[in-house]
Amino acid sequence: MEEITYKGDSEFENIPSLKDKALRINLNKDIYGTFAEIGAGQETVRQFFRAGGASGTIAKTMSAYDKDFSDAIYGIEDDKRYVTEARLRKMLNHEVSLIEKRIIRENHPTKLFFSYANTVATIDFAKKFKGHGWVGIKYQVAPDQEYNDIVLHIRFKENDARLQQETLGKLGTNLIYGAFYKYNQPKKLLRYLYDHLDKDQLEIDTINFSGPVFKDIDNRLMSLQLVKNGMTDAVMFAPDGNNVLPARVLYKKNILALRGSFRPVTKVNMDMYEKSYEMFIKENKVDKEKTQVIFEITLSNLRAEGEIDEQDFMDRARLLCSLGQTVLISNFQEYYKLVEYFSQYTRSRMGLTLGVNNLVDIFDEKYYRHLSGGILEAFGKLFYKDLRVYLYPMQDRDGSLTNSENLKVHPRMKELYKFFKYNGKVVDITDFDSSNLSVFSRTVLKMIANGEDGWEEMLPEGVAKLIKEKSLFGCEAEEVVHK
Description:
- This protein is α/β, with parallel strands linked by helices.
- It is built from 16 helices and 20 strands.
- It has helices at about 20-25, 45-50, 65-75, 85-100, 160-180, 185-190, 220-230, 245-250, 265-280, 310-320, 335-345, 355-360, 375-380, 415-420, 440-450, 465-470, and strands at about 5, 10-15, 30-40, 60, 110-120, 130-140, 150-155, 200-210, 235, 245, 255-260, 290-300, 305, 305-310, 325-330, 350-355, 385-390, 395, 400, 425-430.
- The strands form 5 sheets. The chain has an 8-stranded mixed sheet, with helices on both faces. The chain has a 6-stranded mixed sheet with strand order 4-3-5-6-7-8, sandwiched between helices.
- A hairpin with a 5-residue loop joins strand 1 and strand 2 (about 10-15).
- Helix 1 packs across helix 2 and helix 2 (about 45-50) crosses helix 5.
C-alpha cells in the first residue's frame, strides 16, 4: 500500500480508502482485539466485516444498549451517565482484561491486543441537541509492551442520525488505522482522523495520548494542533497539563475570562485577574462555588512571522499551569465569538476582564464587516448576554489614567458606548495596584533578550525562577553552584 502523502492542509493524494485501511488491519496476522460500541450502532466494526478477513482480527464485537446490561458489564457511574470519558475508559479496560484472560499468550506470542470502544449519543428527535460522544482505543504495538491509549471527544454537526452513525464509523476506522500505523507521527495521526470526512460533519474538541509510545507527547501541544488544523474552535487544558473537555469545566458555571498573550504572564495580568475576580464574585447573580476562571490565548496571539511557534506556546503554557490556571486556546479573534462559545454551556453571568486598548478595539467597526448586521449584530451577541466587562485602567505617558469614563472611541461609536457603559455593562476596576501599570510583557521579553537585570520583579512569584530553570523565552539557564 502506498504511503499517505499530503499536499496541503485540505488537499490530499493517495489516501487509502476505508476498505483498504480496514483490510490492512485485518490482514495483519498479529493485530487482534474487540469492538464495543454503544449508542450509534456498530458502525466501526461494520467497516472491518465488510472489508473481508475480519475473522483474523475481531475476537468479539458487542453493543450493550440496555442500561442495566451496560451497568452489569462495566459498573455504574457515580453520576449515572453513560456518554462520559469515565465510561469509555471502563469499557476499554474491561475489554482488554477479558482478551488477556481468554487468549493464552503462550499460544499466541506475537499477538498485539487491542480494544476499540465508543459511547455516543446521536441527535435527538427534536434536533435540539446534535449529539456527542467519546471514542478511544487501547492497544499494543509490541506483545511484551504495556498498552497505549488514545481517547477523544467528538461533537456531531450533521442533522441526521444515520449520517452521524456513518461519520462515526469512518472516524473509528481512521483512528484504529492511525493508532497502529501512524503512532510514531501523532501530528499526522490527528490529521488523518479526517480522511474521507469533512470538518462540517464532525468536531474533535479533546484528545489525550498516553502509554509508552506516547511518553514524549505533551497533550497540551496536541490540543494546539486541534485548533491549528481547524478541527475545533477551542480546546482547554487544566493546570496538571492534561486536556479537559470544555463542557465539563464550563457547564452551568459563572465564567470570568481574561484574554492575553501572557508572553510571559506578568504581575499586571495577575492583578487584573485578582481584582476583577473579587468584584465578580460579589455580583448578586454569581455563585463563588460555581465560578470558573479562564485564561484565554487566541491563535492570532500564538503566531510568529505567520506560523505558530510551538515552543513559544509551550513556554506560556508552563507558566500559566505553574500558577494553577485553566487555559483556553481559541480561534476567536472577536470577543463576541468567545461569549457565544461560553453560552453553549452556561446561561449564568459571565465576565470579561479587559485592558483599555482591548475595549477600544471592541468598538472598532472593521472587525465586524463580515457580519450582515455589522457591529450591532456583534454587540447583540456580546452585551445582550448576561455579561459584564471589568476594565483595568491604562497609565498614559504623562502619568494620567484612562478608564471607562474618559477613554476615546470612534465618534460614530460614542453613543453606542455610552449606552452600554451607563447600563452597567462596563465597570472600572478601581482597587488596582498602581505599581503594576508600567509593567508590560514586551518590556520583560526585551530585557530577557538583552540580558538585563530587573525583569524578575515584574513577574508573579515563582515565574522568573521557572523561566530561568527551563530556559524559557530564550533566557539562558543560570549555572547551578553546588556547595
